[in-house]
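seq:
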Amino acid sequence: MSRLWEIHARAVRASLRRVGAVGLAIVAPVALLVTLLPTPLQARAKPLVVRGLGWLHDRTLLEWLSWTRLEALANVAMLVPVALLLTFVLGARRWWLATAICVAASAGVETAQLFMPARVTSLLDVAANGLGALAGAAIAAIAEATVLRARRRSLRR
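struct:
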């Protein structure tokens, strides 16, 4: 049973690595494009989003959500899938490395934005990205553990 389990666990991890690698090949360039365009995409969307938030607030919906909070939440959300996929590639035991790589990449992007006149850099963006990276890595580690646990249960039957 132990040898069989090792084979299955290796197969599960290999599948997650493939999913992570393919996903990263798609998600990472999109994230870099969004963050490194000379003019931020949100600058074009802001009037429409603010109007939509006003409409919601007029109906006493999501009154706590402002443009600033929405932007911070977007910074958190942007790194969740990147860290999740990177954790699949590196393995759940290296969740901390995936998080560190994402934070370093975020700091690199913010540094690059220093040289783009239309961009605004912020350490709060790095912190929000770091929070998203941590969440993504945690979700990936939990997902891997859950899949492995389910596979082990099915092998016992």
